[in-house]
């Protein structure tokens, strides 16, 4: 199996270089309260999408993160590249604001069989050139909390797009899918991550593999 390395360096102000090919980040903003570090994710991203009502969150909450700046300036600076979804949540004044700034609007109201996150992930999958797809990582901000059916729907997207790197983010949690087609190495960023890491099998049983290393001084 090919090794897959996981690291949340996107939570750091700068992404340190190493010997692995650099990841390209796409940010999807969903319609739940945004993590306080969302502007940092925005800075790292090469592509920024709002999933329908996620545009309301950017419009309303980003100025609160920069209370000493003019709200209009903040909103203009953090302009999404694309707003995509069934358009049942975005407010009219927010839609008009971003249309005037040149944001691409993709109305998928004809598709009621997939979630807005699913629609955005499918767009990113089709947007990225095929040879580079393995180097793309999708960060979904505001993906956790709120209605449980929405939250579990977002987790379902991880399983539906299991060949893509997708990370669901909230202020205190991140979730990603570890496909069984790879070995996995998780690198902890101790300066920004807490002490807990849970590994949960989804849909199938798991088997444990132990790599025993003797503790210092043991026989």
From TrEMBL:
Which GO biological-process labels does this protein carry?
Answer: thiamine diphosphate biosynthetic process; thiamine metabolic process
This protein's UniProt keywords: ATP-binding, Kinase, Nucleotide-binding, Transferase
User: GO CC terms for this protein?
Assistant: cytosol
Going by the record, the broad EC class of this enzyme is transferase
> Which molecular-function annotations from GO does this UniProt entry contain?
ATP binding; kinase activity; thiamine diphosphokinase activity
Entries under CDD domains matching the protein: TPK (cd07995)
Which InterPro entries does this chain map to?
Thi_PPkinase, TPK_catalytic, TPK_catalytic_sf
User: What EC numbers are recorded for this enzyme?
Assistant: 2.7.6.2
* Gene3D superfamilies cross-referenced by the UniProt entry: Thiamin pyrophosphokinase, catalytic domain (3.40.50.10240)
List membrane-spanning regions: none
Q: What is its main location?
A: cytoplasm
Q: Which domain of life is it from?
A: Eukaryota
Subcellular location per UniProt equals: Cytoplasm, Cytosol
Q: Which residues form the Thiamin pyrophosphokinase catalytic domain?
A: 40-165
List the PANTHER family hit by this protein, alphabetically.
THIAMIN PYROPHOSPHOKINASE, THIAMIN PYROPHOSPHOKINASE 1
Its annotated function is as follows: Catalyzes the phosphorylation of thiamine to thiamine pyrophosphate (TPP). TPP is an active cofactor for enzymes involved in glycolysis and energy production. Plant leaves require high levels of TPP for photosynthesis and carbohydrate metabolism.
Q: What is this protein called?
A: thiamine diphosphokinase
Q: Which organism is it from?
A: Nyssa sinensis
């Amino acid at each position: 199996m090919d090794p897959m390395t996981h690291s949340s360096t996107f939570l750091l102000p700068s992404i340190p270089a190493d010997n692995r090919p650099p990841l390209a980040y796409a940010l999807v903003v969903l319609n739940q309260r945004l993590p306080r570090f969302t502007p940092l994710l925005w800075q790292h991203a090469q592509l920024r999408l709002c999933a329908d009502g996620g545009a309301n969150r950017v419009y309303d909450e980003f100025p609160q993160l920069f209370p000493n700046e003019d709200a209009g300036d903040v909103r203009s600076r953090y302009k999404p590249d694309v707003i995509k979804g069934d358009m049942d949540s975005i407010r009219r004044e927010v839609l008009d604001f971003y249309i005037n700034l040149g944001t691409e609007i993709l109305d998928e109201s004809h598709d009621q069989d997939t979630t807005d996150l699913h629609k955005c992930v499918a767009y990113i999958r089709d947007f990225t050139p095929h040879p580079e797809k393995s180097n793309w990582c999708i960060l979904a901000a505001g993906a956790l909390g709120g209605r449980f059916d929405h939250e579990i729907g977002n987790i379902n997207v991880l399983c539906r797009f299991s060949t893509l790197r997708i990370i669901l983010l909230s202020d205190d949690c991140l979730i990603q899918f570890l496909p069984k087609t790879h070995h996995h190495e998780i690198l902890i960023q101790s300066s920004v991550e807490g002490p807990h890491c849970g590994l949960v099998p989804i849909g199938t049983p798991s088997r444990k593999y132990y790599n025993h290393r003797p503790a210092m001084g043991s026989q």
